[in-house]
Amino acid sequence: MPTIKDIAAKAGVSHGTVSNVLNKRGNVSAEKIQLVERIAKEMGYKMNVQAQQLRAGTARRVCVIVPKISLKCYNDLYTGLEQVLREHDISIELISTNNLERDEEKAVKKALSLNPMAVVVVSSLLKNRGVFTPDTRFFFAERKVKGMPENSVYISFGFEQAGRDIALKCIGDGHQNVALLCENSIYSNNKSFMNGVVDVLEDDNCSCKLFPGDDSMWFNKAFDILGSKEEFDAVIAMSQEDADYLKAAHQYNPDKTMPVIYALTSKSIGIDPDVCRYELNYKLMGRNIAGQIIHAGGEDAEAAPAKKQQIIMENDGFYEKSLPSAGKKESICFLTIQNLTSKAIGMLLPSFTRETGIEVNMIEVSYDEHYKMAQTCVQNSPYDLVRIDMAWMTELGDKIYRPFDGSSSSVQWLRQQILPSLSENYSMVHGIQYAFPLDACVQMLFYRKDLFEDELIKREFFEKYKRRLEIPKTFEEYNEVARFFTRKENPDSRTRYGAVTSYGRTFLAACDFLPRFRELKKDIFDARGNVNILIPEMKQAVRNYLDTCRYAGSAVYQWWGEPTRQFSEGSTAMHIVFSNYASEMIHNPESKVVGRIAYDTVPGGQPLSGGGSVGISRFSKKYDACMSFLQWLYRKDIAETITYLGGYVCNRQISRNMDILERYPWLENMEKSFEPGWRLYKHDRNPDFNEFLFEDILGKAIRSIASGIEGMDDALEKAQAECEQAFNR
Fold first, then answer.
1. How far apart are CA 723 and CA 716, in angstroms?
2. Where are the beta strands (DSSP E) in 192-341?
3. Fewer CB within 10 Å, N- or C-terminus of the chain?
4. Largest alpha-carbon pair distance within the chain?
5. Which class for 102: exposed (0-12), middle (13-18), buried (19 or more C-beta within 10 A)?
6. Domains defined for the chain, CATH in brackets
7. pLDDT digits over 278-310, tens only?
8. From CA 102, how far away is CA 41, in angstroms rounded?
């Protein structure tokens, strides 16, 4: 086995240089990086990562101790941890104890022998018997242990509140004779949950019988409940597994009336028609613990608190299943754009009809057809619900939609479901609410992380520009990075182009360009409210865009799908596009860059918002049926399922669902980008201003300039003249 010394001798460099190259550190030239990496590969050198960690004093490892990994809650906890830690090159050692105290003591000793950054434990011990030492960071999940070390963290959910919530719903549903299938009450979480359930039921004079037992007895206890002489009308179970055993036991007792099952479960996608689920987000708990380990317990150990911390996470609550029936059969007509969201909604519409008796006739049209059809809805509309692009809100919103009554309980409930950062631009016209955000999206920067993280590339960039290769925060930096990754500018570039531009249509050209202008100046109006684009910042932004075009190839794209495919083919280093195109890049099996893409806010921090809003036509006579549909659409379970299927509904719970984020990881960043996202220019002294028309005017100018048809001054002056005629009085 070759050593670092052998590589150094053959390469003719120092031992320290080889060590720095192989360990991705130090100030080493691009030439020497290439040399050392080539020779190491030729000699078959493999780094001993474990020995490297031991020499460093602390292994980049986290130990996780759970009672049983087969239980969904603990599997989800582990998954959440692993997903985050993996991104930081931290390994996980998993140990299962089967809820046995003696096995846990052995597990902790084994974990400590590995010299980990931290130990995460769902403990079966009631008190610390000296195994949990203060010189290692411990995270106690779900269960408290008496005598936890001073620098430890206890993280859990509101188990007592969960018990109270389930009991209250049980009473509200009319149940009076309840069985509680409870796990071992010696553990703090189980005890708190049971107390919450029993306190509420006893206060309401409901009968509550306990069926205690550990996980090895769940099936037996399920038979005991169903075989009891008492006729229970409801069962409260402490896990999904408890509920599953109850359903399995009922298969052997088909003549026995099956009680309604309420279960405390880990958060997941999909409806179980036989179970009313109350969810706790164990994957999010795992991610939160991982974040704390990285921030305080690992990469900056000195930041670890000297005192115990207690973190109680928010319960996700009930996974709703249905709305009350509308009572009579009706039909409503819904005009929307053809996209992944409408496709997913269409898949779920039969369930809405089954719940409410309301049939939905959904008309899906292309983008070009959509605007024309939306305009006709101003005079008269055959549609009850209409989706329009949020860029058309100021022009069409108050003319198409019926305003919502803010005092209505149904409207207030809908407002509570929506991300607050979207309410203004997607819902309001002149301070009045006419719609709700539906399939919102925002521009994001997608880039090849394999290129940005490559040590040789980083060194080459530094040698060329005398600064580190980083994700660009300004469009000036963006163009510099794009130039570096463009082969005609840098023959060593691994990509043909550094960036992508889309100006084949006026709409695309305006969207491509405007974040550059907004980085320099936020407004287009003068003091009198007139539109003025003949300003230095506009010209500077145009010059910046023309610079980008030089590093983007000569293709003139007519829609965003085309440049997105170019990026997916691996020929481009960076791509700015609306987030609803991310799936094609990240999940397309034909993509050559799957697994090598990362995402960030657009340079300048002024991304354009996109997507659309939905409201009730002012001509519709079916308000109640439309509200039933909107309540169904924004309900947590429906919004999550639509998003999981590839669409997006702006429910504030989406980013808390780790199953969705595993599938579409950019959604978390997208929702953060909604806050700085914008689209609508407004001025109190210019009521004639129309965003859609302005983008068309400016887009024509940008397209003409970028195509070389007109010079910058001539094109902008022509655009200004159109603005004068359209908006300025």
1. 10
2. 207-212, 234-237, 260-266, 275-280, 309-313, 317-318, 330-337
3. N
4. 90
5. exposed
6. 4-47 (1.10.260.40), 63-89+97-319 (3.40.50.2300), 330-437+615-673 (3.40.190.10), 442-606+680-726 (3.40.190.10)
7. 999 999 999 999 999 998 654 444 445 556 799
8. 47
